[in-house]
Specification:
Length: 390
């Protein structure tokens, strides 16, 4: 049985790799193909009456590791200099303002039509309001540098801000002045930890001479993130700061204390670390969506009770997308359609405490919104005119 599982996983992951190779040509987001492949695997196992282990328990852990690696991968790709200030502002506002506005509107709709408490409605609305970097970043590899850069910033910040907002709503039983004071204190703590941990990890990256040096760094990053979660600290901020720091040593050379890290030598190690991160992120992301597709029931995809809600949510997503791009004076094509939901939506949905769950928001609705946004992104990228590459 073990041999069969290993063979099946290898075959599925090799097919996932082919999806990744051909996605730039077919313009089909790999998330759709991976979900479909996982679902097909489930049908084959059911048809031949094979026994498969229950993968439900490992899905949240796999999603968390995937989220860490994807945000790290995105932050390592981003260049920081004065010319980037404008796009950073647009990305930050584009990630935050539509998210909060859309979450409030969806919460009112859930509250009005389902008669649920507003706080519970808001907690269930937030997962739909976050752009998934796990889906967006791999899908824009062929766009112009400026569009690709905006998507990396926007989707990574959307993940981080969305998790922070979700935790703030879920972990505070009462939202009042003290809640915001505690939140501000948590931000100060995580920035201090991020600065110290980043310096320490960069030092280790430069000093470790053992032939195994990158895996311990990644394990320490995951460890710091998970420990920060125990104390309700926004650990993704640390991931972002660490990636931006070691990925932009050239821009920080003017500071004397940076010279202690020997930035020219460290850049070589950072490039190797980036390659390992990209490969690991692909592996974990592919496994996550394959397993989630495997766990999908056919009835959940075609659930007619949730389909109207899915259309309403997706319509609101793209209405706010149009307004955001107009106000930011960014090109509609193809950025309008790059607003997929994916890994982070699933992860936060699975994280909603039982006492805060509402019946309107269920697995069927999550799957339908993810598929609809991915299909629209695919259509948008297919019809968009090719952008000149710098």
């Amino acid at each position: 049985m073990t041999v069969t599982i290993i063979i099946a996983l290898c075959v599925l992951l090799l097919i996932a790799y082919l999806f990744d190779l051909t996605s730039s040509v077919t313009k089909i987001p790999s998330v759709i193909l991976l979900l479909f492949l996982g679902w097909i695997a489930r049908q084959v196992i059911t048809f031949f009456d094979f026994h498969a282990p229950n993968f439900t328990a490992i899905l949240p852990a796999l999603g968390t590791i995937g989220l860490i690696l994807i945000v790290l991968e995105g932050s390592l790709e981003v260049e920081l200099n004065k010319s980037k200030i404008g796009i950073v502002k647009k990305s930050f506002l584009g990630a935050l303002v539509p998210m909060i506005t859309l979450a409030i509107i969806l919460a009112f709709l859930f509250n009005y039509y389902g008669n649920y408490g507003f706080k519970d409605s808001l907690a269930n609305a937030i997962p739909f309001c976050i752009i998934s970097s796990a889906v967006a970043i791999p899908s824009v590899t062929n766009l112009a540098a400026s569009s690709k850069e905006f998507v990396i910033y926007e989707s990574s910040l959307s993940d981080i801000l969305g998790v922070i907002l979700f935790n703030f709503i879920v972990l505070n039983e009462v939202i009042n002045f003290n809640s915001f004071v505690n939140f501000g204190f948590q931000l100060v703590i995580i920035f201090a930890i991020s600065f110290a941990a980043t310096i320490g990890l960069a030092f280790l990256l430069n000093k470790i001479e053992h032939h195994v040096k990158f895996v311990p760094i990644i394990l320490l990053i995951v460890l710091i993130y998970e420990v920060s979660k125990i104390y309700h600290l926004p650990g993704l901020i640390f991931i972002l700061i660490f990636g931006l720091f070691i990925g932009n040593l050239d821009e920080l050379k003017q500071f004397k204390w940076i010279q202690k890290f020997k930035p020219d030598e460290l850049n070589t190690e950072v490039q190797k670390f980036k390659e390992l991160t990209i490969e690991a992120a692909f592996l974990v992301r592919a496994l996550f969506f394959l397993l989630f597709g495997f766990l999908i029931e056919t009835a959940e995809i075609i659930d007619l009770k949730t389909l109207p809600w899915a259309f309403v949510i997706v319509s609101l997503i793209f209405i706010f997308r149009i307004i955001q791009l107009k106000l930011s004076r960014l090109p509609m094509q193809p950025l309008l359609f790059v607003a997929p939901r994916g890994l982070i939506t699933i992860l936060l949905f699975l994280s909603i405490p039982v006492i805060h769950q509402i019946s309107i928001v269920n697995k069927s609705l999550i799957i339908q919104v993810i598929i609809l946004t991915a299909v629209l992104m695919m259509a948008g990228l297919m019809v968009a005119k090719p952008q000149p590459q710098k």
